[in-house]
Fold these 2 entries.
Entry 1:
Amino acid sequence: MPNKTISVRIDGELVTAQEGQTILEAAHAHGKQIPTLCYLKGLSAVGACRVCMVELAGTDRLLPACTTPIQDGMSIKTASEKLTLYRRMAVELLLVERNHICSACVSNGHCELQSMAQSLGITHVRYSYNNPHLPVDMTHPRFVLDHNRCILCTRCVRVCAEVEGANVWEVASRGIYSRIVSDLKDDWGQARNCTGCGKCIQACPTGALAEKGFSVMEMVKQSDSVSRLAAQRTHQANGALERFGMCLQARPEQAPGAAVPRPFPRSQSSRMCSGLVGLHPPDRGLSRRHRRKLSGPLTSRPS
Ligand code: SF4
Ligand code: SF4
Ligand code: FES
């Protein structure tokens, strides 16, 4: 059933939106740009960076556009002096939390954090730098994780779980001690679930995740390719769910103990019922973790 159409005001303009959309989605649908950092189209929204805050008429509280559902009659302001000040503060706090030395960074010139700082007119920060001593994980054969550049947006965590289905990344600890960790704090090179697909690299908005072999200013990310892939997988998964519905409908008609007829070959329908359909393109087959589950321990380390 199509979602109900509602009326809202965005920056004074009366527009329609669909019930269930977020403020950000509704604004995008009408060509309004709201700055974002942790949001990436195609992944779930978590509201981590607070850069997308907007004003809502009738309340002093600012709301994160990426996670707030739009409601009928809302009047939203996406740009104002108050919002610029707030967004500037949020970005400055990200810059001082770790060690962002752009002149020595692989993402210099192609970094979403840097671009955001530039667009907000940040020429200096008003807070003292934390200067933490953070490690760089070089153990993966092809990729590198530099905690010094990480803004804890969790895009890597979400793309790995929601698009690749490998669940390598997590956030460990709290507050200023929070860190992205792979496979229960193993070195990335030891993370057996990692398929080496590189989606986390492309999704990362900064120089925190990069490919080896790239020098200062050389790492250019393709985060829109992740969004396109996510949309494609959602489409495939929806199709598979419809077929899964057929599979479920067939069951009540079976005599007790009779074999369930399979509308697909065994391999495909078992993947479908384990929720993997749509998460892996046909040429990739099952993830390493599920291959291990089905065929016992791997004899060699994933490359
Ligand atoms: S990640 Fe971005 S902001 Fe941080 S040092 Fe690199 S270029 Fe600068
Ligand atoms: S490694 Fe990159 S994608 Fe992952 S949380 Fe840090 S900044 Fe975000
Ligand atoms: S983009 Fe909305 S909180 Fe980060």
Entry 2:
Amino acid sequence: MHEFQCGSPVCDTRFSAASKEELMDEVIRHVQEDHHIPQPTKPIVDFLEANTIREVPSSPTAG
Ligand SMILES: [Zn+2]
């Protein structure tokens, strides 16, 4: 799965999703609503994807 941790120093939002695509949808919604960027441009999205997303191994024993 993939985990997002917001890079903003004034924001400690984090969440995770099964796929990067799902997570990026959530990330875009987050920057739109919480960071007042109504139309994140591709460079912004690319920056977020490169800097705030990390892949975490799913643990088959959990749950
Ligand atoms: Zn944030």
